[in-house]
Amino acid sequence: MKQITSVQNPFIKSLVQLQEKSKSRKQTGTFLIEGKREIELALKGNYELETVLFLPEIISEEQINKLTNQQLNIIEISKEVYQKIAYRDSTEGIIAVAKSKSLQLSDLELKENPLILVLESIEKPGNIGAMLRTADAANIDAVIIANPKSDIYNPNNIRSSVGCVFTNQIAVCTTDEAIAFLKEKRIAIYSATLQNSNEYHKVSYTSATALVVGTEATGVSQTFRENSTQNIIIPMQGEIDSMNVSVAAAILLFEAKRQREFK
């Protein structure tokens, strides 16, 4: 089995670039996954792993072999090398190089009456991750990320989603592409916005539905607002006029699930 002990190793340097630069992830079509749970979820999501690097003081080769039936290139690394490429402060001693998926709208497999969450121009990975966790918890059909501000395989997104970036069906596109897709599929669009809105709990989401949320600063775009079946609002009863976007998304998704009797 191969061993790498030097942080100057060219392969290790390339992994640092994968961790730090979106350009490198896009050029190579690969990205890094850190942590046993995240790797297990990626495998369940049918992601293909190329290489697994491990720190023998923390995890054994036998444990790694139990993770998957895939033929993997397994490399033992030193603590210094691990610390060079690891993103998180807490460590589980395992990092995988995985192949990206295409994440096209055409790749989505939707049932007859889907429930979809659309994230438009969301900037903070913490919010994206929280909403992917909610989408997984609600077991919705897909998440569409419109006008993304970072690539989905950014380590911040993977960490904040605790691996739910792998458990959801995700498509990445422009706002115009998202709207065209939803209209073609006859999926009703409900945009969370202050303008021309009905209270969210007075709207039915029992038919094919896409719930759209935008940035906390500017909300959803005018394009989405104008193409909505109905704009919706969560009534604010305190002093402020908005809430964290991930909280708002959770409220909307679970109202839709409640109306669908959690099916």
Secondary structure elements and their pairing?
Layout: E1 2-4, H1 10-20, H2 22-28, E2 30-34, H3 36-44, E3 49-54, H4 61-67, E4 73-77, H5 79-85, E5 94-99, E6 115-120, H6 125-138, E7 142-146, H7 155-160, E8 170-173, H8 175-184, E9 188-192, E10 197-199, E11 209-213, H9 222-226, E12 230-233, H10 245-259
Parallel strand pairs: 1-4, 3-4, 6-7, 6-11, 7-8, 9-11, 9-12, 10-12
Antiparallel strand pairs: 2-5, 3-5
Describe the overall structure:
- This protein is an alpha/beta fold and 263 residues long.
- The chain is 35% helix and 22% strand.
- It has helices spanning 10-20, 22-28, 36-44, 61-67, 79-85, 125-138, 155-160, 175-184, 222-226, 245-259, and strands at 2-4, 30-34, 49-54, 73-77, 94-99, 115-120, 142-146, 170-173, 188-192, 197-199, 209-213, 230-233.
- The strands form 2 sheets. Strands 8-7-6-11-9-12-10 form a 7-stranded parallel beta sheet, with helices on both faces. It has a 5-stranded mixed beta sheet with strand order 1-4-3-5-2, with helices on both faces.
- The termini are far apart.
- The model has no long low-confidence stretch (mean pLDDT 95).
Question: How would you summarize this macromolecular structure in one to three sentences?
Answer:
By secondary structure, the chain is of the alpha/beta class. It is built from 10 helices and 12 strands.
